[in-house]
Design brief:
single chain; mainly alpha; two-stranded antiparallel ribbon; 14 helices; 2 strands
Length: 300
C-alpha cells in the first residue's frame, strides 16, 4: 500500500527548490526523497514503490521537467562530416553502455548503417562517444579541497563550450563562432589541469600561455603527463586556427576540417579530466580491445 500523495506539498517543495535555483530535472528526485523522509521511510531502495509513486506524481505534474536535464553533459561523434550529438545520460549503478545508444540510435543496425559499415569509422565514433562520457563525468566528479588550485571554473567553461558545439555543429553551416567554442574547449580544459597543479592565474592569462594551445599542451605534458595522449595532442594543437585572428577573418576551412577540430578538442578535454579523475576512463576499455587512437583520425 502506498501513502496518499499530497499534490499541494509537491507544488510547495517545487517552488522552494526553484527559488534555490535547483534545475527542474533535479527536483523530482529531491522532492521524492523529501516525501519519503516525511513519511518515515528510512534506508529504502530507489525502486521502492512509494518512491516511484512520488517521482511519478512529480513528473505527471511537471512533464517538461526532464528537458532541462537527466544528462551530465554533451559531446559529439561523427561519421565523416555527419555529426551527431551525444547526450551523456545520468547513470545510476553499473549498467552496460552501448555506443549506438550514446550516439542516439535505437538499434545497432541503424548505427552500423550510419558508420557506413566501416570498422575504422565505428572505432572512431566509439572513442569519441566515450571521450564525451569521460569528460562530462570527469567534470562532475572533480573536486578540490584546496580552492586556491581549483580548476572547476575552467572545466565548467570547457563543458559549456562543448555543449554549444554539440548542439549547433550537427546542423550548422556556419562555423565562425563555433571555431571559437571549439578552441575554448581545448584551451580551458588544459588550463583546468594546469590550475590544479599550481600554475597561477596570472600566467594562465598572460602571453606566455594565454590562447596559445601549443604552449599549453607543452606545459600540460610537463605538469601532468599522460604520455600516449601528449604525443597526439602535441600534433593536434597545430591544426587549430589562430584564436584571435579567427575572430576577424572569415573561416575558409571545410566542414570536415571543423568537425575534426571539434573531435580533437573533445579528446583533449577528456584527456585532461582523465588526469584529474583517473577512474573516469571508459575509453580505456575500447583501447584494451585493440583500438588504437591515431592522430590521423583528426585530420583531413
Amino acid at each position: 500500500m502506498t501513502t496518499k500523495i499530497d499534490v499541494d506539498r509537491i507544488y510547495a517543495l517545487d517552488e522552494e527548490l526553484l527559488r534555490a535555483d535547483v534545475p527542474p530535472h533535479a527536483r523530482g528526485f529531491k522532492i521524492a526523497s523529501r516525501l519519503m523522509k516525511d513519511a518515515g521511510f528510512i534506508g529504502y531502495r530507489l525502486d521502492h514503490p512509494q518512491f516511484e509513486a512520488y517521482l511519478k506524481a512529480y513528473n505527471d505534474l511537471f512533464p517538461n521537467a526532464d528537458k532541462t536535464g537527466q544528462w551530465v553533459g554533451f559531446g559529439i561523434v561523427a561519421s565523416m562530416d555527419d555529426v551527431r550529438t551525444v547526450t551523456v545520460p545520468l547513470i545510476y549503478g553499473s549498467p552496460v553502455i552501448h555506443v549506438h545508444e550514446l550516439c542516439g540510435f535505437k538499434t545497432h543496425d541503424e548505427y552500423a548503417m550510419w558508420v557506413r559499415g566501416r570498422t575504422e569509422i565505428a572505432d572512431k565514433t566509439a572513442l569519441a562517444a566515450f571521450d564525451a562520457l569521460d569528460f562530462a563525468y570527469g567534470v562532475m566528479d572533480y573536486h578540490k579541497a584546496n580552492t586556491a588550485n581549483d580548476g572547476s571554473v575552467h572545466l565548467a567553461t570547457a563543458l559549456a563550450n562543448l555543449e554549444e558545439v554539440a548542439k549547433r555543429l550537427p546542423e550548422s553551416g556556419s562555423y565562425q563562432t563555433l571555431a571559437q567554442c571549439i578552441h575554448l574547449v581545448a584551451e580551458t580544459s588544459m588550463k583546468a589541469v594546469l590550475k590544479n597543479h599550481g600554475v597561477e592565474d596570472r600566467e594562465l592569462r598572460g602571453r606566455s600561455l594565454g590562447h596559445n594551445l601549443e604552449k599549453l599542451a607543452a606545459r600540460l605534458a610537463v605538469e601532468c603527463a599522460r604520455v600516449k595522449d601528449d604525443v597526439i595532442i602535441a600534433e593536434l594543437v597545430g591544426d587549430f586556427p589562430d584564436y584571435v585572428a579567427e575572430r576577424y577573418a572569415p573561416t575558409t576551412r571545410s566542414r570536415l576540417h571543423v568537425v575534426r577540430n571539434g573531435l580533437a578538442a573533445q579528446f583533449i578535454a577528456a584527456s585532461c579530466t582523465r588526469r584529474l579523475v583517473p577512474d573516469r576512463d571508459t575509453s580505456g576499455i575500447v583501447e584494451r580491445d585493440g583500438v588504437v587512437r591515431d592522430v590521423s583520425w583528426y585530420r583531413d
